[in-house]
Write a structure and sequence with these properties.
The complex is a heterodimer of chains A (113) and B (112).
Chain A (H helix, E strand, L loop, with lengths): L2 E4 L4 E4 L4 E3 L1 E4 L5 E7 L5 E7 L5 E4 L2 E4 L9 E3 L8 E8 L8 E2 L3 E6 L1
Parallel strand pairs in A: 2-12
Antiparallel strand pairs in A: 1-4, 3-9, 5-6, 5-10, 7-8, 8-9, 10-11, 10-12
Chain B lengths: L3 E4 L2 E4 L5 E7 L5 E7 L6 E7 L2 E4 L7 E4 L5 E6 L8 E8 L6 E3 L3 E5 L1
Parallel strand pairs in B: 2-11
Antiparallel strand pairs in B: 1-3, 3-8, 4-5, 4-9, 5-6, 7-8, 9-10, 9-11
Amino acid sequence: GNSVTQMEGPVTLSEEAFLTINCTYTATGYPSLFWYVQYPGEGLQLLLKATKADDKGSNKGFEATYRKETTSFHLEKGSVQVSDSAVYFCALTPENTGNQFYFGTGTSLTVIP
Amino acid sequence: DAMVIQNPRYQVTQFGKPVTLSCSQTLNHNVMYWYQQKSSQAPKLLFHYYDKDFNNEADTPDNFQSRRPNTSFCFLDIRSPGLGDAAMYLCATQRGLDYEQYFGPGTRLTVT
């Protein structure tokens, strides 16, 4: 079946530290991969996405590369800010099924000044 | 400007008392979804509409129903809430397949 596994949190970092949140997936073929972010009191927002192998999604300084060989889509940011504190969700849609979203359990990030 | 609106943000209901959660959108998107998210768990898809076509997930309990009277509105009805139904309920919209989903802020349901 289809599933997403992401690293458990919570993660606490100092401002300007390097961030990695691991995400691996199980799916047949070539799913589309997403990172969503949920700020306190708000809904999930799309952060970035990649739709084919070796694609790199990027937004607001965050990056993630679609690695088919390792079935991974790790989220990275070189220098986090306090405003990046949120919960991050990795998700996939299986190939040719754009309305079936599978989410990971979320990773809570807190950035301290 | 809010694009996906959920009301109320917090809902308390009694065990067994029917409750309705509301979602509206200003995006004119074809697809609308309802997810259930329990604490520290991934959002779980309950059902979705593609226009008026209703699609129920196989493991969604019969206790959960949905209505979409028009493009803008979608409702989640829980006919007889149990304690295990306490969760955050998320509404999302999508312009069509293969597009991103836009989420509302969620309604947190408490069952007493």
